[in-house]
Every structure is written in C-alpha cells, then in structure tokens.
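Appendix B, record 7
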Amino acid sequence: MVRIGIVGLGFMGRIHYLSAAELVGGEVTAVCSRDALKLDGDWRNTRGNFGPEPGIVDLAGIKKYSAIADLLADPDIDLVDICTVTDQHATIAIAALKAGKHVLVEKAISLTTADADAMLAAASTAGKLLMVAHVLPFFPEFRFAVNAVRSGAHGKLIAAHFLRVIAKPDWSADIADTAKTGGPAVDLHIHDTHFIGLLCGVPNAVFAVGTVSGDAVTYLSTSYIYGPGGPAVTCSSGAVCMSGRPFAHGFEIYLEKATLIYNADKPLTLLTADGMSTQPKLDGGGDPLAAFTAELQTAVDAVKTGKEPDLLSGKLARDALALCHRECESVKTGKIVAME
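Structure tokens (predicted):
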C-alpha cells in the first residue's frame, strides 16, 4: 500500500483527497495544514471551480500535521502530494525528496525554471520520483487525442489549435498574483503548454501577442514554431472573458486522415477521410474527479514500479513552464523568442 501525505488543504488539496478515495493500492494516511480548522475537518472555505460543495470532512484515522517537517519525518509516508500555492512548490518538494519521499506536486512545477531544475536535480540525487500533476491528459477527450496522435492510426499530426479562456475567477485571488502563481499565463496557460509539449514536442521558438496587467500577462495568442515540416500549432489562453461564460477550453487537431474537434460545450467529434462524423465512446464519464483519480493512480503505480510515467514527467513539466515564460517574453517584447 502506497501511503500518501497531502500538504496543503485548499481547493486542490480537497480535490486530491476526495479523488484518492477510489485508489487501488494507495491511500491518504496524513494531511498537513497550518489551518487548525482544516485539520479538524472544516473544509467549507475550499470552494473552487468544480467538484462537490465543500463541507465538513471526517478525518478520523488520518494523521494531522501543522508543520511540514513533521510530516516529512513520518517514516510511514511514501508519497508526498504537494497542493500548496506554486511559490512554495520548490522548497517543499526539495525537502521531501531529501527526506527520502517520492513527490507528486501540483502544476505548475514551480515559478522559475531554475527552481524546476533544482527540483529535478534533487530527485536524481535522492533516487526518488518527482512527478508533476498535470491532469489534462487524464480527461477522456484529451486522453483520446493523445492516443490518436501517438498511435499513428490517422497519420501524422499536421496542425492544431488549442483554447483555454476563463472569466476572472471569484474563487482565487492568487491567479492574478505573479509572485504566487505566475499569473494567468502560467497558472492557467501551463495546462496548454504541457499538453502541446506532450502531443507535439517542445517547439524551437514562440511568437505571442497578448494583454498585460501590471506584470502579469492576462491573455495571449501564441504560434509555436517547429520549423519546416511543422506541425503548425497555435493556442489562445487567458482570464479575460465576461462572467457569462466562466470557462471554455478545447481543441481542433488536424491529422493526415482525420480531424478531432472538442470544446467544453460539445462532445468530442472525430471527422474521418471517408466523410463520416462520429462521437467516440470515452471512458471516465463526465465527473472531473475521475480524471484526478486516474492521475493519482498513475502516481501510485509509479511509486510501486519506481518508473516515472511520461504523463507526469518532471522534465516535461519544466519545459512547459519554460514555454510559458518565453511566451510572456514574446508578448512584452513583440519578438519571436527562441527556446533554450
């Protein structure tokens, strides 16, 4: 049994805790928070943009820590699941790795690529897994897209466009705080850069236009430059929509012999060269918690085997962060910006 300790009991910590109830071969055995009410099970102030209404949680049988160091010193914890604000990720993850724990850390991996590199180095030195919880590939529509591209069943990837636009959230003040989350161009858009890296590889350069508020890029439209032969990939992402449409995401993916179309308001559609239009049968249903369960299950299975899963790759998460930073630089300078 893989024993999990969750650090941070905000919205995402609650989602991870609820999703872990369905794990096979893994369970949450400890939680850590500086908030005494949360340690008592009062999670009513952990509301987010999806999931069940927060309330009172029975934490009987769960170890409760107010100090991270005490949780890390617990020899009965195998995997530390870090669900704090992004600016705390690197410090906690490195401490956990040095304590001999495997780590799953919520996206974004960190605020800077230097911190991400330090986290990867700490994992290598400790001989432990550093996994980053990018959940998007575990949602059925996005998982279908990954499988369609990787299988080559419909030919090679030619082009793609991705969309992720939200209204300014009333459930998170931190998303606009670049010192805590990196702002929308990191905290929100990194879902897209991670998926693009997974599906298409890391591009050679980026060119982006967008809007800036203070030091935060709030919206951007990016072209990912792969050079001759493509693919031709673009993305629009930001937190600029009116509240009448609080969330929209999706994609159009163009393969040699098929087109995949998906947005949050309509089901995934597969268009094929024979003129047929079908809606593929997807596993997982419509419950977003199922995607988080699948993500956590992948992490638990990885701890058992000692092999890093590519969907939770620390290196890919680091490259996704680097992409976000290069795009922000492009928005602010008006220039094409090369990757490292």
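Remarks on this record: The mean pLDDT is 95. The radius of gyration is 20 Å.
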